[in-house]
Design brief:
With 443 residues, the protein is α+β, with helices and mostly antiparallel strands. It contains eleven helices and 13 strands. A six-stranded antiparallel beta sheet has the order 3-2-1-6-5-4, with helices on both faces. Strand 12 and strand 13 form a beta hairpin. The chain binds adenosine-5'-diphosphate (ADP) and magnesium ion. The site of adenosine-5'-diphosphate has 20 residues, from helix 9 and helix 11.
């Protein structure tokens, strides 16, 4: 058995962030790092390379991947994970992992008490555990292992800090050849964690600012129309028929604004990844029938008939019933909106390639081929759509997010003036995208 679990001798005080922010020239970084650490050359070089990659990556998933790879490489470990603090709940959750039952662990919340990562957050310094199974204070860590059927022997965990604020924890698991972690490992990982924390924060901010500026831009047009029209309405000499017309436009634009804001909220929640699916056994055929029932009235008003072509049954499957209903609602309401009067819609489902595949075919205006690649982008509407019917351009983005969260895919085939066919395929098995484990149910 290995010696006692130890804290590293003199855990480093978090270095001033300014010292290693990406703005520094490579020369200055080399200088600072050389002074601060006595790393062997190879590790030193790879640290620099990693730091350059980190500071230039704003794509969050790619960034997390780079950090995990770098962690394994720098500390010579077999697996690693990134845990972040949810600013709303102050709880830790797994953001990304390498070489651990991937998909199962994501979003798993980890209590601060009884977990190694929680200890690191609370003490704001690194921690080495040579044998997790002997560290009786960390009951949660052992629980996570048994949930994931993953075996953690040794752990080196360092805080992810920005300007003295802990935003999460980086964990390197299972040192190669069962060697103990060294002081150099701690130094290297801490140096990398400083860069990683800044990069994660930058990617988050970038994503947010991008989203907010797009939203503001989209809100501005209907808002300006509302301001102009309401001013016109106050004119005493305005003919009555114009007054009615303006009032109607105001109503329509206000309704659109309201729809836009709720769709926007919905999408930003989905995109932040903070929405957890309610995975349960679902009756997809039942969901399809219910959704059609809800939409039929609207279709009938436009003389549109909805045909249904469903199999007697589908294999049992897992999913989030409400969210899948939302996808279908979006597709069917589009099929109604963008159809021609007295057109048809056909909704079909089948079991194909080990997925449940649902298609909504319409006899509408179709989509120009150069527009297809943009259809699922937020706020995108085919150029001449605006004058045709109201909308937000968010429905398909939301649908795509939900389908992807289920581990499925969504696509469209369309022919101008003939119609469009939107389909999505969901994996049957929870294995595709398993139900997130809930730790509290097992403690
Ligand atoms: N069934 C369809 N037929 C033709 N065009 C469609 C269809 N569904 C979607 N579109 C096009 O894709 C755009 C984006 O759709 P969506 O995200 O649902 O937003 P919205 O319906 O609010 O405009 C629509 O504005 C329309 O131009
Ligand atoms: Mg729509």
């Amino acid at each position: 058995m290995r010696g006692k679990n130890q804290e590293p001798g003199t855990p480093q005080v978090a270095p001033a962030d300014e010292e290693r922010t990406p703005e520094l020239t490579p020369e200055a970084q080399i200088g600072a790092l050389k002074e601060a650490h006595s790393l062997e050359r190879a590790r030193f070089a790879s640290l620099l390379k990693i730091s350059a990659t980190l500071s230039s990556t704003l794509n969050q998933p790619r960034l997390l991947e780079v950090i995990l790879d770098a962690t394994n490489q720098l500390s010579r470990t077999g697996a690693s994970s990134i845990l972040l603090i949810d600013p709303q709940t102050n709880n830790l959750y797994f953001e990304a992992t390498s070489n651990i039952a991937y998909g199962q662990i994501e979003r798993l919340e980890v209590p601060l008490e009884g977990s190694i990562a929680g200890w690191v957050v609370q003490h704001r310094k690194p921690r080495i555990i040579e044998q997790v199974k002997d560290a009786s204070e960390f009951t949660v860590s052992a629980k996570i292992d048994s949930l994931l059927t993953f075996s953690t022997d040794s752990v080196l965990a360092v805080p992810l800090m920005i300007k003295g604020r802990v935003i999460g924890v980086l964990e390197a698991l299972n040192k190669q050849d069962r060697q103990p972690f060294t002081a150099e490992d701690v130094e290297a990982l801490e140096a990398m964690a400083t860069q990683a924390a800044v990069a994660i924060e930058n990617a988050r901010l970038f994503q947010q600012s991008d989203f907010i500026s797009e939203m503001v831009h989209e809100l501005r047009t209907p808002l300006m129309a509302l301001v102009a029209l309401s001013e016109l309405l106050t004119r005493p000499d305005l003919p009555a028929d114009q007054r009615d017309e303006f009032a109607q436009t105001i109503q329509r634009e206000a309704k659109r604004l309201s729809e836009m804001t709720s769709s926007f909220l919905e999408l930003s929640r989905l995109e932040s990844g903070r929405v957890k699916l309610k995975y349960e056994q679902i009756d997809l055929l039942g969901i399809i029938r219910q959704t059609i029932t809800v939409q039929r009235q609207q279709a009938t008003e436009r003389g549109i008939n909805i045909e249904v072509d469903l199999p007697a049954e589908l294999p049992p499957m897992m999913g989030d019933a409400d969210r899948i209903k939302q996808v279908l609602l979006n597709l069917i309401s589009n099929a109604i909106k963008y159809n021609r009067p007295n057109g048809t819609i056909s909704v079909s489902a089948e079991y194909k390639d080990e997925t449940a595949q649902v298609c909504v075919q319409d006899s509408g205006r179709g989509i120009p081929s150069d527009a297809v690649k943009n259809l699922f982008k937020r706020f995108y509407r085919v150029p001449d759509t605006e004058g045709y019917t109201a909308g937000t351009g968010l429905g398909l983005s939301i649908a795509q997010r939900i389908v992807q969260q289920h581990g499925g895919r969504i696509w469209v085939e369309s022919e101008l003036e003939k119609g469009s066919c939107f389909c999505f395929a969901l994996p049957l098995e929870a294995a595709g995208r398993p139900e997130p484990l809930r730790l509290d149910e097992h403690l």
